[in-house]
Amino acid sequence: MPHRGWISYRTCVFHPLHQGKKSIATGILCISDHFALGVMQAAVETGVDIPGQISLIGFDDASFASLPKIQLTTISQPKEEICEAAVQTLEELIAADGPAPISCKTIEPVLVRRDTCGPSGGRALW
């Protein structure tokens, strides 16, 4: 039996599109590429065209996101840069003679454009 979240994708987003009505959204940003894959499956099952009717973006740039039949637009986190910053911070904490000052480093994610996003095509919100 599908998880309730799976049913909500189909009911809230794809059901109106399948019936030729306008969706409340022109795009979906998922918390992970794995969730985006579930959204893609729901779209296939309901006959909704990605990106023709709705755009889809995942998060993490999982290895399957670039497969030829998937080609998921995603947000990639620069993992090497994150690891380097973590190691540098640990080294600074170890070398500190007492409490270390609190610091913050911003590491920008990267949008990886593939085939699941397109222009809104004049789609309007409800």
UniProtKB/TrEMBL annotation:
Q: Which residues form a coiled coil?
A: none
- Which keywords belong to this entry? DNA-binding, Transcription, Transcription regulation
> What is any Pfam family matched here?
Peripla_BP_3
Cite the Transcriptional regulator LacI/GalR-like sensor domain residue spans from the record: 26-117
For this protein, the record's InterPro entries field holds: LacI/GalR-like_sensor, Peripla_BP_I
Q: Which PANTHER family match?
A: HTH-TYPE TRANSCRIPTIONAL REGULATOR GALS, LACI-RELATED TRANSCRIPTIONAL REPRESSOR
For this entry, the protein name equals Substrate-binding domain-containing protein
